[in-house]
Amino acid sequence: MGNTFGQLFRVTTFGESHGGGIGVVIDGCPPKIEISETDLQRELNRRRPGQSKITTQRKEEDRCEILSGVFEGKTLGTPIGILVRNKDARPEDYAEIADKFRPSHADFTYVAKYGIRNWQGGGRASARETIGRVAAGAVAKKILSILYSDFEVVAYVAQIHGVIANVNRSAVKMKDVETNAVRCPDAAAARKMESLIEQIRGEGDSVGGVIECVIRGIPPGLGEPVFDKLEADLAKAMLSLPATKAFEIGSGLAATRMRGSEHNDPFETRGGKIRTATNNSGGVQGGISNGEDIYFRVAFKPAATIAREQRTVTSSQLRTKLAARGRHDPCVLPRAVPIVEAMAALVLCDHALRQKAIGLSVDRSEASSDEIRRRGRS
User: How far is CA 195 from the centre of its chain?
Assistant: First the structure.
C-alpha cells in the first residue's frame, strides 16, 4: 500500500525501529550498474545514529547486506534486496508509552488507523525506517551519475530554530557540508547551531529547522504533467519523511510578494543552449525540468519525543503525564541531510527512466514511420 514509492524505479521499504531489521526492495533498476555494499555504506554512515554528541546516542553500525539483485558487483536487472539488522534496540525504554500517547507523535493516529501499534521506539513511524530510503538513494545516485555526467545533489542545514546560515547555493559542495556535525556549510552558523542543540538537549527539549537541497546537471525534460509534475513528486517525497511540515521550491512563498515582471525568468542563450537569466522557478517550469539548478527547501518540526514532562492521555482516555525515556535526537536535521538527498535522487532517477522510455518510444515510432515511407516508395 503506502510502503512503495516510484513508477519505473520502485522502492518498497520494510521493518520497524526495534524489530529484527530494516530494509528495502528496489525494483526496476537497470542491469550492469556497478554497485557494492561499500557504495551503500558510505551513505548509510551519514544517516546512522551516534555520529556525534548532538544526535541520538543509540549505537548502531547500520551495516548493510545486499541479499539479491547484484552479482559480481553489477546489478542484474532483477529486484535488489538490502537489509540492515537492528543491534542496539532497547524496547524497555519505551514501556511507559505502551499505554500513553506521545503528543504530536504517530502513536494515536496509528491506533486510530490500524487498531494496533508497535510502541517499541515508534515501530514503523520511527525515522529508522529511512535506512531503506538512503540505501535505495545510493543506487539511484549511481544511475543518475551514469545518465548525466554532471549530476550532483547536495543538501545542507540552512536553519535551526532562529539561527540562519548564509550559504552560496550555486557553489556549495558536499565536502563543505561534511566539515561539521551539524552539516551546515556556514562555519559560524554551524557553531551557533551546535551550541543551541546542546542547550536544548540539556533542557530535555527539541528544535526544528530547514534543510535546503540543490541538484545540478539535470537536463531539460524531466517531469510528467499533469499529476506527476517534477516538483509535485519532489514535494511528496520530502513530505513523506518523518517530522517534515513544509516544502517550497525555487522562490517558494517569496513569490507571493513579487510581481510577474519580477518573478519571471528571462530566457537567453549561453554556450549554445537555451538558459534562464535568473532561477526563481527553481529549475522546474510547468512541472518539467528546464536545465537550471533545481533547488528546494524542506521544513522539519522539533522532534515529538522529548524528556520534558507533557500532558497526555492513555488509550483508556485517562489524563496523565509523560516524560519520554530512551535515546532521541534533540534535532533531527543533521541526520536528515542524506535522507533528503536520497529522496531527491529517487524522484529524479524514476523520472529519468520514464523520460528515457519516452525517448525509446519516439525512436521506435520514427523508425516505424521510416519503414512505412520506404514501403510506400517501393
Answer: 26
